[in-house]
Each structure stands twice: as C-alpha cells, then as structure tokens.
C-alpha cells in the first residue's frame, strides 16, 4: 500500500484505546491527580455514557493557573471545553486531520456507531506517518504567508491528486480530499487578505460556495461558483469595504490558479453579492418563475455551503427555500424535468454516442452524459424530502433512510455515479500529465473493453434513474 493511502484508512486503525473519562460533577483535583499519575494530557467528560466535553492541560493552564483560582474549589464543569468535536471510528484518517485543522485543535475523541466513547486520536498520532502527505499539505497551507505561497500550494494539490489517482483510493474519498484542500486554500486566503488589507472588515457576512464545490464533489477542472450574503444592517462604508474585499478575493483566487466562472458566478460581481433580504427576494423570483435559466441558477444555488463567516445567514435562506417549495412544487418539477432532458448518449444495441465534429470529436462529455442527471435528480428528491445536506452520496443515503429510494436502487446509482466521476478524474489527470487543459471529456479510444462496458452500464443506470424521476414527479402530466 502506498504511504499516502494511510490517510484513507479508517480511524479504528490508529486511535488510542483506554481513554480516561469522568463526569462534569467530579472534583477537579481528583481528575488532575489522575492526569499526573497516568502522564496524560486530557480526560473525556461523559454524560449518560457518551462524551460531550473534554478537560485538557491547556484548560488547566488557561482557566485555573492563569486566573489564580483554587483547584480545590472547582469541579470538572468549571473548566471543561464543550461542545466536543468527535469523529467516528469508520471515518478515514484524512477526515480527522481536516477537522483538527478546521477547529484548531490537537486531538479528536473517537466514538463508535452508537456514539459511545471508543478512544482518542491526536495530531501526534498522525504526524508519525509520512511527512510528504495530505496532512503535511494542510499544515503548509495553514502556515502560508502570501498569495505566492498559496499559488505554489495550489499546484502541489494538483500534483498530489495526480500521484494519488493511481493508488486505488476510492473516488468518493478522492473528491472529498480535493474539496477539503481547496477549502483550506480559500480560507487561508481570506485570513491573509483580512490581516493585510481588511482588518476593519465587517463580520456580518458569509462567503458561500455552490454547485460541485458546495457539495464537496470537486475534480481538477472545477471553476469558481461562489457568492456573498451579508446582513441587512451592513451599509455605507462597511458595505463599500466588503465590496472591495470581494473583488480582491476573487482576483487573488484567479491568480492562484482557480479558474473564473465563465458565467460570472463569483462574489466580486454585484448580482452574486447581496444582502439577506435581497437574496431572499432573488431566490423567491427563481422559485416562483421556473424558466430554464432560473431553474439552472436556482438549482446550483441550492447547493450553497458557508465556507467562511455567518452560517446562520445561509440557514435562513435555505429555510426560506424549503418553506416555499413545500407549498409550491412548480420549481422542483421543472428542475426534475430539466435533468431528464440530458439523455444518456446511448444508441442502438447500447452503442455509446460521441461528438462527431469539433474540438471534442470522438469524445464524450461525462457531465452531460450522466453526472449532471444524477446530481440534480438526487438534489430534487432531497429538497422535496427536506434532506438536502452534504454530498450526492450523503443525499442518497438520506433518501434511503427517508424511504424515498430503495437501498438496492441507490447502490446501483451510486456505482454508476462513482464510475462516471472516476472516469472524469482520470481523464483530467491524463490531460495534466500532457500539459493540456482538463475538462469533462474523455476519449473512448483511451478506455479498454472492460471500462467501456462499465461505462455503458453506468449510462444505462442513469437512464433508469431518469425514468424513476419522471414517474416520481409525474412529469408526463407536464405541459411544455
């Protein structure tokens, strides 16, 4: 197994068992005595048998020693840190290091499927693995002190993905890795810009990503789809500074190597930078007037994910959209109809049809052939069920739990989706290796007989899913 594959192994292979625990009512001096006797730096706090807080040596320094309090007068509840950041034993190691980085902590409590304490994993455990790794890349991104440094790190991300593409890592974990690393670069860029040019910037806004980036399903050719939502109270000079920041941020992203959106869906453009009230009005306009353009734009917007700033602004918009569509399904039906119009390119006897002319002659656009139909079909079902969270994989699982789709149906669709995304990523990696621009196209001549057979099965699976969507939303009753 390649060293990098270690980061896609489950947490259960690495975490420390036998963690000391206590309750919030325990005397602090007793817990400190245990920490000293066992030479440990933390104790997990349990409630009803499940972890909900932690006491660390940092808590003792900052909340007891630095404040001059008498330890004998304190209980665990007086110094513990909560809420607790946990991770499941079946999650992969890379997810652990990502959460540590995101929350600026050095350890995670590991829980089993029932949420019961299983152990703990620390940054030291992860550092024991190879230094040249995704983890090291995350650490380097956190330490980046300039846009030039982030540009070099963005290039390293592409090189890492090219290397990992041939190691057998599951495509679901690969796209998650790409999304996580790109998130880190963008977050670091925002911090640098704020520190260097915008220390006075308002905090009453959210920078959000949408589309595949919002779902955490990026591959190597993904361009920008982002926006800014700001509180209605932001005006005057504060708004002017936010507008200037938006322009500098997007320009810096482009200079780093993240392609601009051809359609201009970027926070530097006024139509993608609005107040909460303005966004609510715009969202209502899309939902109430489901023209083809509004359906495409509104569907992409529904994938919005807050990357920086006030997540409550996003929650308010999403709640508004759910409430509207619960009472008026016209938009959802048109969204479902739109995905069925991207028919898989299958001809007689299952022959795969490719472009017959132009720059992509003999090639197949995998996004139009099936990826879009799956992501938007699942999205429509998830919106209707009120289960719109996470990636397409997450939504599929939620739809099974909600009884909207059968487990075996989702298993087949998941396999088709993963294969199409894998083929797209492999095509993009091949393009980068030959210094050509990556895209959504693949050449059938580059696929062996087995891969062409799998591709045909995947496209047939997409067609079957479209039939399910047509029946579910009763599209046969629609008048065009």
Describe the structure.
This protein folds into three domains: 3-127, Roll (CBS-domain), CATH 3.10.580; 144-310, Beta Polymerase, domain 2, CATH 3.30.460.10; 334-477, Four Helix Bundle (Hemerythrin (Met), subunit A) (Up-down Bundle), CATH 1.20.120. It is 52% helix and 11% strand. It contains 17 helices and twelve strands. It has helices spanning 28-38, 57-65, 93-103, 123-127, 134-143, 147-164, 171-196, 211-215, 236-256, 276-288, 292-301, 311-327, 330-340, 366-385, 392-401, 407-433, 449-472, and strands at 21-23, 42-47, 50-56, 86-88, 107-111, 117-122, 205-209, 226-230, 273-275, 305-309, 363-365, 441-443. Strand 1 (21-23), helix 1 (28-38) and strand 2 (42-47) form a beta-alpha-beta unit. The chain is globular, with a radius of gyration of 25 Å.
Could you provide a short overview of the structure?
This protein has 480 residues and is of the alpha/beta class.
